[in-house]
């Protein structure tokens, strides 16, 4: 059962711009859904990983494949751990 669900934006894309509360939520998360928006957005995915690393998160990461999103499609397929 989900106890808490947080949505954390990356703002301007700098790890320094994520709020302290956002960084704490990333550290405490058990699972993080990390959106992937296709090959042309790999720099954005790398930025999201940098933010997770800066937060010290050891959460399980589920990739949310938004570039392939279609009705009935499985959006999360891969799992990864930072640590």
Oligomer: single chain
The number of E-state strands comes to 3
Helix content: 25-40%
Domains, number: 1
How far apart, in Å, are the first and last alpha carbons?
25 Å
Name the helix and strand elements from N-terminus to C-terminus, one letter apiece: HEHEE
- Radius of gyration from the alpha-carbon trace, in angstroms: 13 Å
Biggest sheet: strands side by side, in what order? 1-2-3
- Count of DSSP-assigned helices: 2
Task: Name the shape in a single word.
Answer: globular
The percentage of residues in β strands lies in 15-25%
Roughly what is the average pLDDT, rounded to an integer?
78
Largest sheet: 3 strands, mixed
Describe this structure in words.
The protein is α+β, with helices and mostly antiparallel strands and 83 residues long. It has one domain (22-81). Helices cover 28% and strands 22% of the residues. The chain is built from two helices and three strands. Strands 1-2-3 form a three-stranded mixed β-sheet, with helices on one face. Helix 1 crosses helix 2. The chain is globular. The chain starts with 19 loop residues before the first helix and ends with a strand.
Briefly say what this structure is.
The chain has one domain. It has 83 residues and is an alpha+beta fold.
């Amino acid at each position: 059962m989900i106890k808490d669900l947080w949505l954390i934006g990356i703002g301007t894309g700098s790890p320094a711009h994520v709020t302290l509360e956002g960084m704490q939520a990333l550290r405490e998360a058990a699972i993080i859904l990390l959106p992937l928006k296709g090959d042309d957005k790999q720099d954005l995915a790398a930025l999201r990983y940098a933010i997770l690393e800066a937060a010290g998160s050891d959460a399980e990461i589920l990739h949310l494949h938004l570039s392939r999103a279609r009705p009935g499609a499985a959006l999360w397929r891969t799992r990864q751990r930072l640590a």
